[in-house]
């Protein structure tokens, strides 16, 4: 398994479990495989989400166990009476256990496997499951029959252990869990890949000239819900902006592509202390910005100077408040 690991080993989590083939006595087809082999799975997960690796370990006991003996009894008996060693015979891994991608993009979900003997009889399948929905099959391939169903996987790559799936033109409906399964009888392994659709907002800041002027900050086309919008006012150069508290919000608007839009606005009532123009700004944070925020500023009443009524966009480290999930 070590050759598949990247990065320092102190970032790894390791789990070892018994793997039950049920009542099957199918012999592993490589040299030394026996019908009474005892099986384990060893899973390595990188704590930063760089990869998941599962290896199937085969142990051949000197004593043949009855098919009706419980797994824990067989293992305790072997552990007490014999010096054992395990062989890793099949490895299944992904370098994309969790993927964040925007809309209208193409993304590849990595799935790789290795088997200890040449030309194994194997089946590769991909399934997709939305949260709370039914599981649907996206792709299947059988080396025994040569038949292929579905698309997204390069069949030529399977012979070299590459079963990666390409998801074309992502939509909100593409979000969910993708399962890559590889079966080499009697073993059946799978890796889960979570695909998250993350689309940042398009932010605009404008003024509306009415009986009571207002400043409107709009966040358009974002996914998922929700955004945090703050409005500020600065009346003199060098003064710390004042966060406005009388902010009103519109209802969320859902678009045909399932993205959302919302507006926050404040009605302007310049005080006698205001002279000339004030600088109004809005700050929008969203999970897609990963701890950053979008900041826009505009000149507004006091007296609106139409010659400078332009938006300015920049991205700065978001340190004043946590991002609202």
TrEMBL record:
Domain of life of the source: Eukaryota
Alphabetized SMART domains for the sequence: IGc1
Keyword list, A-Z: Immunoglobulin domain
Spans traversing the lipid bilayer: none
Domain Ig-like: 87-192
PANTHER family, alphabetized: TAPASIN
Name of the molecule in the record: Ig-like domain-containing protein
Organism: Oncorhynchus tshawytscha
Origin organism lineage: Eukaryota, Metazoa, Chordata, Craniata, Vertebrata
Gene: LOC121839402
């Amino acid at each position: 398994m070590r050759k598949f690991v990247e990065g320092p080993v102190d970032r790894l989590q390791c789990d070892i479990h018994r793997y039950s083939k049920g009542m099957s006595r199918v012999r592993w087809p490589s040299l030394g495989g026996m019908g009474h082999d005892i099986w384990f799975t060893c899973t390595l997960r990188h704590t930063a989400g760089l990869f998941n690796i599962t290896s199937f370990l085969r142990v051949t006991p000197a004593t043949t166990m009855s098919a009706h003996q419980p797994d824990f009894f067989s293992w305790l008996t072997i552990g007490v009476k014999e010096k054992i060693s395990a062989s890793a015979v099949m490895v299944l891994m992904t370098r994309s256990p969790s993927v964040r991608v925007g809309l209208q993009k193409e993304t590849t979900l990595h799935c790789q496997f290795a088997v200890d003997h040449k030309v194994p009889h194997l089946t590769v399948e991909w399934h997709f499951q939305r949260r709370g929905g039914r599981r649907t099959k996206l792709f299947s391939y059988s080396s025994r029959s040569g038949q292929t169903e579905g698309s997204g996987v390069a069949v030529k790559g399977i012979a070299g252990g590459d079963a990666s799936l390409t998801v074309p033109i992502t939509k909100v409906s593409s979000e969910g869990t993708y399962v890559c399964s590889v079966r080499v009888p009697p073993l059946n392994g799978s890796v889960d890949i979570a695909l998250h659709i993350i689309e940042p907002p398009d932010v605009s800041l404008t003024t509306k000239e009415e009986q009571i002027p207002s400043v409107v900050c709009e966040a358009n086309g974002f996914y998922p819900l929700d955004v945090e919008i703050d409005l500020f006012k600065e009346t003199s150069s060098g003064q710390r902006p004042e966060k406005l508290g009388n902010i009103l919000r519109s209802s969320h608007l859902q678009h045909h592509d399932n993205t959302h839009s919302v507006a926050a606005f404040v009605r302007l009532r310049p005080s006698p202390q205001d002279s000339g123009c004030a600088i109004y700004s809005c700050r929008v944070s969203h999970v897609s910005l990963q701890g950053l925020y979008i900041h826009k500023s505009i000149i507004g009443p006091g007296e609106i100077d139409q010659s400078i009524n332009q938006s300015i966009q920049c991205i700065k480290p978001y340190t004043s408040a946590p991002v609202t999930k």
